[in-house]
Specification:
The protein is of the alpha/beta class and about 180 residues long. The chain has one domain: Rossmann fold, CATH 3.40.50. About 55% of the residues lie in helices and about 10% in strands. The chain has 6 helices and 5 strands, in the order E-H-E-H-E-H-E-H-E-H-H. Strands 3-2-1-4-5 form a 5-stranded parallel sheet, sandwiched between helices. The longest helix has 20 residues. The radius of gyration is 16 Å and the shape is globular. It starts with a strand and ends with a helix. The structure holds iron/sulfur cluster. Iron/sulfur cluster (SF4) binds next to helix 3 and helix 6.
Length: about 180
């Protein structure tokens, strides 16, 4: 019987390529959405709805989870820790042999910190963490996402990253008008 992997997913686009890698490695994958600090609320809903649409089309089981977690916007280590701890806890309680995360696909995240956090959470909670450097598939994930017409956000998720994106676009607008 295939072993069960709980794959934490931050959004649809990052899940596209990632679940295939783990399936090809022999895992029976269930996708797990737990990203309570995505800001604003409409963005949280949009990311979940798009992931749900993709999972529905791909025949992937999807679990939605939510809990009000107090996190300081922009504190990435606490953010990774909270999401991976919750994933590991759900995996343990529900008979999964291991967990992983689609955060490992992003070239914009602190990859080494995600890996270390996953390993620490694994030790702490006695559930295996499956690591793969998914970044090699980042471009392919965007191609698959375009094929499926998935919404692709331009910021990580929390309020801090949302503000930074807005500041970047204002700066770009100013540069365009002064050019
Ligand atoms: S930038 Fe991303 S990883 Fe860092 S705290 Fe915000 S949502 Fe979490």
């Amino acid at each position: 019987m295939m072993k069960k992997l709980l794959l934490h997913a931050c959004c649809g686009p990052c899940a596209t390529y990632s679940h295939r890698v783990f399936e090809e490695a022999g895992w029976n994958v269930t996708v797990y959405f737990f990203n309570p600090n995505i800001y604003p609320e409409y963005e949280f809903v949009k990311r979940y709805v798009e992931l749900k649409r993709y999972c529905g089309k791909s025949g992937l089981p999807l679990v939605f989870d939510f809990e009000n977690v107090e996190l300081t916007p922009g504190q990435c280590s606490a953010c990774y820790g909270s999401r991976l701890k919750k994933t590991a806890a759900f995996a343990k309680e529900n008979g999964f042999e291991a967990f992983s995360t689609t955060l490992l696909i992003s070239p914009y995240q602190d990859h080494e910190l995600i890996k270390k956090t996953g390993e620490n959470v694994s030790d702490e909670m006695s559930v295996d963490f499956v690591y793969d450097d998914l970044r090699t598939g980042y471009r392919e994930s965007r191609i698959i996402s375009r094929e499926h017409g998935l919404y692709m956000q331009k910021y990580c998720g929390c309020e801090n990253s949302f503000r930074q994106m807005n500041e970047r676009s204002k700066k770009n607008e100013r540069l365009a008008t002064t050019a």
